[in-house]
Amino acid sequence: MVSSTHEAMHRIFQHDLRLFSRLSGMLGLPLPPPVEVTVLPTDLTESAPVERRVDTLLRLDSADDGSLLLAIEAQGKKDTAKPASWAYYTAYLWTKYRLPTALLVVCQDRGTAEWAGRSVCSGPPHMPTLTIQPVVVGPHNMPVITDPAEARADLALTTLSAITHADDPDIDAILKALSTALQGVPEDIADPIIEFTAQGLGKHPAGELWRKLVAVDLSFYKSFISEEIRDEGRIEDRAACVMAAFNARGIPVPDHIRERITSCTDLDQLSRWHWRAVTVSAAEDIFTDEGE
């Protein structure tokens, strides 16, 4: 199953079609700025029953150097089968579009980035035939953006910085710079950035920090993720109130009841349990009024 983190790592390039052009300078790639960038279909399936899809596919058209294709792959871990797939993708795209084809791999950890950046040949050492050499973006070469002004100047790049530095010590400062930069930004611009960042961080500890920053610093936004984050915060607070009522009254709470309370995601139900916790004589009695 494709994770939300995987999706965010490459779809940010679809959201901001000029992001790679700005990134190429940081990577030392002598590419002219494109006149136009087009998102192409990612389905690389042949007539045979084997389905193959690249994560994101862009066509970059420049005035001086013509056009090129950029296949973007999000890679969460080492996979010995991937170089062969990447070779297939690039060869197929080159054949289909008759355009120079490049591969960009986005990683979140240095070990995977180092592995992905290695040159891999399809043939034996004395007959390499086809060599795959991706350009890799990851924590080893992405800028650490901790200045809100710099973050505001390029929100998409800062989002990619946060995603690729999810496990770095600087992630707290990056996320704080991004949440500060988003304050006052029009909602239609801020919403996708909020959601890409949340999806890209996924289950990393930094993801929880981002959710708290959105709930506090960006409480005026109404995006799906921001509303979900605030709902989760309200649920956690109400569950804590139920437990606090029991603790204040010296009522012991068995583990199975504690688990039921803290795992409940129904805010209305938690509110009812909270009121009952103030009056019942035993923890399990908060469930009895509704025949639970």
Q: In angstroms, what is the radius of gyration?
A: 24 Å
* Mean pLDDT across all amino acids: 85
Q: Number of helical segments?
A: 12
When the domains are counted, the total is 3
Q: List the strand order in the largest sheet.
A: 1-2-3-4-7
Shape: elongated
Q: Outline the low-pLDDT stretches.
A: none
Structural class: alpha/beta
Helix amount: 40-55%
For the record, give the distance between the C-alpha atoms at the N and C termini, rounded to a whole number: 36 Å
Proportion of beta-strand residues: 5-15%
Taking the sheet with the most strands, its summary is: 5 strands, mixed
How many extended strands?
7
Order of helices and strands: HHEEEHEHEEEHHHHHHHH
Work out the oligomeric state of the chains in this entry. Answer: single chain
Structural overview:
It is a single chain. The mean pLDDT is 85. The protein has twelve helices and seven strands. The strands form two sheets. A five-stranded mixed sheet has the order 1-2-3-4-7. 49% of the residues lie in helices and 12% in strands. α3 links the parallel β3 and β4. The longest helix has 25 residues.
